[in-house]
């Protein structure tokens, strides 16, 4: 199983141009999986939190397309906070990691590139079930 240390910030390539920059993301090129689903969070009210789940198999690349927010990653033993605030950085979240999101700035857009189509069966939505899945004792 993966730990929070396996979830890293990845520098995405930037093509600089005086008319504006562009970043290109390609399946199995600069993303280590085939993108099966793309979604984004926006208009998240100030003070709101999102997430509160893990996935059995899904991998994600998360990009702050606009604004900023914080991810709290949890592998059942350790937690790690990652602040995202630039569109040329992606957070690669591996399977089996609990995630929560907070501190959304006004106007933020959280872009998510996912390795699987949506299936409810891939979600772990209860933290105690997550800890059991990770084979840890709740203390």
From TrEMBL:
Lineage of source species: Bacteria, Pseudomonadati, Bacteroidota, Flavobacteriia, Flavobacteriales
Domain Sugar 3,4-ketoisomerase QdtA cupin, chain residue ranges per copy: 6-134
Organism: Profundicola chukchiensis
Gene3D superfamilies to which the protein is assigned, alphabetical: Jelly Rolls
Protein name: FdtA/QdtA family cupin domain-containing protein
InterPro entries assigned to the protein according to its UniProt record, in alphabetical order: QdtA_cupin_dom, RmlC-like_jellyroll, RmlC_Cupin_sf
